[in-house]
Predict the structure.
Amino acid sequence: MTKKISIVGAGLVGSLLAIYLRKRGYEVTLYERRPDMRKVKIPAGRSINLALSDRGWKGLQGVGVDNAIREIGIAMTHRTMHSVDGKITTQPYGKDGQGIYAVSRGILNCTLLDIAEQSGAKVFFNERCTNINLANNEMSFENSETHSHTKATSDLIFGADGAFAASRLQMQLSTDKFNYSQSYLEHGYKELMFVAKPDGSHQLDKNSLHIWPRGGYMLIALPNLDGTFTVTMFFPLKGNPSFESLKPKLDVNKFFNEIFPDAVPLLHDLEEDFFMNPTGSLVTVKCTPWSFNNKIVLIGDAAHAIVPFYGQGMNCGFEDCTVLNDLLNKHKDNWEQVIPEYERMRKPAADAIGELAVANFIEMRDLVGKPEFFIAQKIEGWFYEKHPDKWIPLYTMVTFTNIPYNEAQEKGKMQDAIMNEIMQMSDIENKWNDIAVENKILTLLKQQSPNKNGL
Ligand SMILES: Cc1cc2nc3c(=O)[nH]c(=O)nc-3n(C[C@H](O)[C@H](O)[C@H](O)COP(=O)(O)OP(=O)(O)OC[C@H]3O[C@@H](n4cnc5c(N)ncnc54)[C@H](O)[C@@H]3O)c2cc1C
């Protein structure tokens, strides 16, 4: 019988999973490579804040921490686009003030760790997992302070050790027919910062996610509680312009003044941040199987790292936890049934959000700045308002519902095809809410899914 569960990695997903499992009465031990983040300062320049949306909220709600986190979050109800000539356009994210929340990664992780410990989970820090013996579920660790080596066994091991998971590597090295792919974007990212006003308030609308779409690249900014914004620059790693080409300080200042002029006066210290903060890479990881003998299971980024353009990596990992918990309820904690079903449900969902996230990069850096995108969005919003049973915009399905990502992706493709036809209608920019548009969408929906009544 499964009693002792170990989790490798006490990041966002590992910590939340520990709370779920403790609530079910398991003995839970977390092993984390890094020092206790509640006691040390997190290095600057690594995704300081995250967008939390419905799937993530559901995960937090399941263990009763949603209200505590909401207090430290800032609702972003719309996106604001900043063009080169200083023109500002806004688009709501959803209906009736629906929003995504900017939350601090550090505070969120520390809160989850606190609750995991309070609920009885043991957490060992500075313990890097170096090996897992799949034959006997024995984990090996190296302590980063003492350099001592220890071993531990467990009935069940979760690999929640992120995109470059050691647990996944062990499965890859020690099993036959393990499928694995990693694909890097040609873009990387760097974090910069907008300072607060002298009175501590925000320099831009804080209830918005700000975007500077520039075709091949972009800046985005998410608000922090202290009046600052974390700014992320998504930019080519090589070529011209790129992180590689903008080496001299002069080039960086000139580039920003030309391309992001309204952002420049808000920035903390462009030169210092640009040259001192690390350049991160953007990877999509897919693998299968996610488990071995129902004794070792991957979860979160370890199973499915995705690029951040849908703001869904953590949300997806939190959804892994809720789905797993639901399956434990359904199968009365029979892990032999739970693990295969978890994998069957989550693998297609994770593949879908991985693909959607890459596609959304193009939308964010390019399309959101284009008038036709704006019109298509208006039509979608208007039609959705009138026929919520027949059409839900893809962004809404991903962000504000729990529709499995793979179903959302399929419906999104069908809706895209319809919208492409609608955008060909004459004078669509002026007649976007005409009865003819409504009727044409209804007809096309019937043709696309003759046996189904919309969604
Ligand atoms: C720039 C950027 C912006 C993002 N924005 C968003 C967003 O807005 N919304 C969103 O939902 N997601 C976002 N994400 C994705 C999100 O950060 C990840 O999906 C999320 O952190 C995954 O959580 P995790 O616990 O699975 O992995 P991680 O957060 O990576 O945690 C893994 C943990 O395992 C530990 N570990 C690693 N190796 C070992 C080992 N060998 N032994 C022991 N411990 C180990 C690590 O130290 C870490 O603590 C973003 C990602 C990036 C890069």
Summary: Residues 335-365 form the longest helix (31 residues). DSSP finds 14 helices and 19 strands in the chain.
